[in-house]
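subagent[fold] <- orchestrator: predict structure for attached chain, return tokens only, no commentary.
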Amino acid sequence: MLRSLVGSEMCIRDRSLLPLFTLDVTIVPTSDHPDSPVKVGCNVDLSVFPKTVAKVLTTALTTIAGVQQIESHVMNRMFWPRKKMLAVVEMKEPLVAESLAEITRCISEGIKPTEQYVGMFQKYNEFLNLDIDSQVASMRENENTTLAEIVKWIDRHTDAKQAVEENIPSESIDLGLAAVSCASVKTKLIEKHTEAVTK
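subagent[fold] -> orchestrator:
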């Protein structure tokens, strides 16, 4: 297990290998408050992702160490002076500590393209927090709103919707260590631009 994941750095370099993780670019709240603004983020916290992976490995090794060998269950009528456990490496072994450190380093490096990719979506945050109903109501209530301004509003959101459809992929994109899907963000942006046009 450890050896295969240390080799994850090779996965980063060799694009013929499948990604180890599947992640989603999605819309997340900026805080725990119900009315907090939203932003484009990832379905997992990328800042702690390497440590999370290392924790999963640590938990797996610890769990396996507590598994009893099958012989005592199969031959349960025999006397066993002590329970034989599965032979596994221990967390205190230098090789294990070095391997976990290397895995964390590789994951940290490998996740950088995903962090950069998510960063490219931050330009949509302002629009995602735009109150369409309030904007449309303001134009309707303003007696000085001209037809040209309404047409400009419609054209702007029509063009923006088309740009989203053309520029944001519908299929997952391979970023080396992770395959990243943008489908939920794309759908939300299209829906909101459509709402702005049809209101």
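orchestrator: received. Logging for downstream: The longest strand covers residues 21-29. The radius of gyration is 26 Å.
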